[in-house]
Batch of 2 targets.
Target 1
Amino acid sequence: MFGPMHAQAQKVDKQTDARIKSLISQLTLDEKLSMLHAGSKFSTGAVPRLGIPALTTDDGPLGVREEVDENWAPRKLPTDYATFFPNGSALAATWNPTLARLYGQALGEEARARKKDVILAPAINITRTPLNGRTYEYLSEDPYLNSALAVQAVKGIQQWHVAACVKHFAVNNQEANRYNVDVQVDERALHEIYLPAFKASIEQGNAWAIMSAYNKLRGSYCAENSFLLKDLLRKEWQFKGTVISDWNGTHSTVNSALNGLDVEMGTETAYNNYYFAEPLKAAIKAGLVPMKVIDEKIYHILNLLLHTAMAPDTKVPKLNSREHYKTAYDIASESIVLLKKDKRMLPLNLSKVKSIAVIGDNAQRHFQREGFGAGVKAKYEISILQSLKYKLPDINITYAPGYKVSYKATASDSVKAAGNKADSKLIAEATDAAGKADLVILCIGGNRTYETENTDRKNLSIPYGQQTLADAVLAANPNTVVVFTGGAPYDISKLKEQSPAILWDWFNGSEHGNALVDVLLGKVNPSGKLPFTFPALLDDSPAHALHTYPGENNIAEYKEGIFVGYRWFDAKKIDPLYCFGYGLSYTTFALADVKTDKTTYAPTDAINASITLTNTGNMPGKEVVQLYVRKDRDAAAIERPEKELKSFRKVMLQPGEAATIRFKLKVSDFAYYDVNAKQWKVQPGSYVLMFGTSSAELPQRVRVWVK
Ligand code: BGC
């Protein structure tokens, strides 16, 4: 489905092409230039004389960002409330492309209602290090899961005459030193790991916009990188849309103009000084940038505008609609991962419970707008505590914060320490409440001040002394369910030992509390699966094991190559704390009867495989059947990962119900990128198809041969 070789060129129909060319012929140079750079924080210049509107953009991915003034201060309008959607890794944890589509549709509709042409989402960089401050915004460590969800999000957004702007192209995998770091990565890792979701977003999602990243790739800034913007994007992927720079991510006039950047965006307000304003005019006059190049950029922008601002609405778009909150709820409820289960604890059996102590600041915290970077001014955001009180009116619910969030991220931080000591007074108060209650729900974790754009975390420790809090609370009352809210891996190894039940929760949008409480109560059976590996130790993960993070002298060398995420843990035989694809359910499932239609295939064949999934427990539930492929070693000895995710399906089953699940793969999905030949190649020989419910639990296997 999302294999490397199923390209489809973007097309501009004849009528659109003629209209664009006619407009270009009527534009003056100054008018053209005004379209090529910011004229405000989030828009370019317009040409009213010809009916060409400004190109209006806004962040994503959490929802349509509130309006800000020229100093980034909120404009406090009554009209810019929006739905807050679960963060990227939450969406990925659903392993549900249908939900990614609904997310895109809702986001696109709200963007259209707010009169935006471009929504700066989805954010699809690979989780290379768990410390990346934007791990919560991104989707996954795996290129297939990343692509499958990105494509649907893009398609959904664009159903509303709003362009998806996939970001940040490319290899923007850390925030530390993000404006300068020069990524040295081999060609194979680029093609197999870091590029597939961008490629798929364009070739399969038909994205009309892409954002160049801040960092450099092999010595050249992404906003002026001819390999990325010309060779790959325009020539190979046939991209006809618009390349927009990240804000203040442009570093030159002539190089950027000649190497493929279309629009320069930024945060400075002296718009005439932008590289693509007066300096570009001078460069054109000096003969350094031909008009043909300028016209190509205008062509891309007009193509985008004709799909968006200049396209009539077919339906009236809505903001904050019930459907959008339903989508936010559905994503949240399918994203929650049951990490540890104990039947006596979960789902909660409240028949004898008269009192619950809810402990931890995260129980009442809102996650819509903290830290550095884009948030949402949500019409509402339901916290865990609010929802518990609402849904359990007959139970005495007490609350104690347990820890204090005092860390403030500043723009000048490059990395941050876990910081903040345990607060003994708050812990004493929490332990007291825990001891008196029949049941404790301990709501700890990260937040959006701690996990944020522009800085990485310094380590995997749980901040604010929360482990000390957890020790005390679990000692005071072992009837404790741990709810850990975060967007990235943390070191929860001690919690894994000491607590009977753990739910992994995310920055889960407007319906956060409702979704989480419904999972606690068993109204929703958890079906989320981790979209990345939780290492037991930071140094177990590749970038850290090889000391290539954050890099030296501004260079980050991706020495691990294609061995990112579970590919590394497999190769090094390291057990993670929780593996990629992991997540339990209140019910149980069994897989049996794996079959393929043939045993030997030609390189151009499709492979039809099937497997039976049975719900063997006593609760309805969803399970994600994951299909990984391994190439058996052969004489050619081309290095291949132990396994790679190639497909997955999420299925709902009633107790006792069985379903036959069919998978269709292409043999070309087994290809690796041959650096010398500069193309994808399928090796002949034998491959093992492995089916299971996490990357470590793959009980059903079948071997096939490729001629
Ligand atoms: C971020 C982008 C974002 C832009 C505009 C930058 O700092 O890297 O993801 O879209 O700001 O807010």
Target 2
Amino acid sequence: MKKLIAGNWKMNGTEAATAALIADIARGVGRLHEVCDFLVCPPAAHLKAVRDAIRGASAPIALGGQDCSAYENGAYTGEISVAMLVDMGCNYVIVGHSERRQYHNEKDALVAAKAAKAHEKGLISIICVGEKEEERESGFERDVVESQLQQSLPKSATAKNTIIAYEPVWAIGTGKTATPEDVRLMHRFIREKLKDFLADSAQMRILYGGSVKAENAGELFAAENVDGGLIGGASLKADQFLGIARAA
Ligand code: PGA
């Protein structure tokens, strides 16, 4: 499976800084896209500028939202609809990121509703799962991930419209990375579990996320069932982000 290198820019950057970042990435992609697919997920406020920069450079980089509303449209102040993401040129949307689960109290049912709405409008959902530090310490990481998979994937999910991102919460933005063996075991477990509710589970991409850098990407992505990465901090520097793709 071709690896997907996805940048989650989170709530960072000015329009000018973002324009410089996408220009540097677009310039550096070159022939790397023959071995990896590229995706960037800028803040909603910068989607249009990034879309225009990608189009202007004719760069093979896809665009995604960092979240979406589970509602169609109307009186939902502050929300961004799937139709708006599509209108801005997105093909992907991240749902259920641990920061949404943690700071906005998003539960599995809402994540599933958002993913279903994304599918309805033709977007690919990147559904995030992952255990907290105390859950891993007490040996519950598989139970947590299994339950998130069961409850966050809507009935509409297929390998074509859904990607799983395994992101252990304790590894996000902390500099602590899961070991290649932790990643290999969890990704194999996820692949096995997906078989329970998907006909095409073998084709579904499973990304790893959590303190991925150019220095550790090679060993993290080497394992079977690791089909790319969801990159936070390191995606804000073009050379790091491209270095991750080169190592993949
Ligand atoms: P990080 O974030 O690479 O900064 O750990 C990953 C993510 O939250 O998607």
